[in-house]
Amino acid sequence: MAEFIVGRAVVDKKTKRLIQRAKPGDIAVLCHKDIDEVAALQLIKSKVKGIINFQPSISGRFLNQGPEILVNSGKVVVDVCQDGLFDMIHEGDLIKIKNNGEIIVNEKFFCKGLVLNKEFIKSKYEEAKANYEKEIERFAINTLEYIKREKKILSSDYAVPMLKTDMRKKHVMVVVRGKDYREDILALKSYIEEIKPVLIGVDGGADALLEFGLKPDIIVGDMDSISDKGLKCGAEIVVHAYPDGRAPGLERVKRLGLEYKIMAVTGTSEDVALLLAYHSGADLIVTVGTHTNVIDFLEKGRQGMASTFLVRLKVGHILIDAKGVNKLYRSRIKSNYLAALLAAAFFPLLIISASSPVAKHLIRLLIIKVRMMIGFL
């Protein structure tokens, strides 16, 4: 790294809120323990110069990929372990990060942190591997405990809002801005164009759809990782509330003067979206970018996945998880396969052409067209 980097501070304890305000050249100041891959990629996309994290970016608790992605992309990541300092940096402060980890705020020495490098990250990965079995056991126990409390999800003891969007007997695609969501949406483009499923964006999933020129029909969530543009795109809005009455996204939706419905269910916003589609009569639910495994949930800071387990148990017979679908087949058509296909197709035509002058002309035209097609492969 250079001797130092300089930028204006963009400050927030929630990385997903910070990313919405970050501008190229800023220094991101956050509190994000065990930075996940999606957050890292969004920080890179925002073109911040560096990251100051007042939580361990990689604790060694599990194999989170975020720090390695940031360091490999050339971003400067500095962890500060001293308590009480986060609130002393304000939005817009001028920050200088030296290559020895010293942080200068508004031309005054502030503190010294740990600059993450590949060797440090590797050591934490080794630590995480040693902790893996204990972490899995703890996660499983927590999941079972939560299942006892959240089992009402199976009994439908909650109200489902009536929406203008008709989902009866239709395909519904639920999009979360999770790992590989871009690649998976691209892989499903032809499916979307042909089937025209109802599109549900879960929080930032609405922005993910807009990236591809797709307008969500419904937006579900806490509304903390979606842009104002996404909220104002014209989709129906369903605010995720909890059984105790808390609805973190309600104030923002009201402030923007938007119409909304509320659905109060224990669990994640992804769970709410699946239950909404299921109870609205969806014929098939296709998910993109959703969180389905232990690492996904640990990266999101959850200690168990009871609600997700129960929801998928309930809707599983109409659920298709498209996560990673882009990896199923990436190769181009091989020339020998193409040659075999053409030979199989032309053999009966050659027999016909021997006894039909009109067929001869048609085959000549077909051969010219195939040659043109091959030229574009």
TrEMBL record:
The keyword ATP-binding applies. Keywords: ATP-binding, Kinase, Membrane, Nucleotide-binding, Transferase, Transmembrane, Transmembrane helix. Residues 323-373 form the SteA-like C-terminal domain. One of its GO terms (biological process) is thiamine diphosphate biosynthetic process. The chain crosses the membrane at residues 337-363. Pfam families: SteA-like_C, TPK_catalytic. GO terms for molecular function: ATP binding; kinase activity; thiamine diphosphokinase activity. Residues 196-231 form the Thiamin pyrophosphokinase catalytic domain. It comes from the Bacteria. InterPro entries: Put_SteA-like, SteA-like_C, TPK_catalytic, TPK_catalytic_sf. NCBIfam families: division_SteA. This is Uncharacterized protein. It comes from Fervidicola ferrireducens. The lineage of its organism: Bacteria, Bacillati, Bacillota, Clostridia, Thermosediminibacterales.
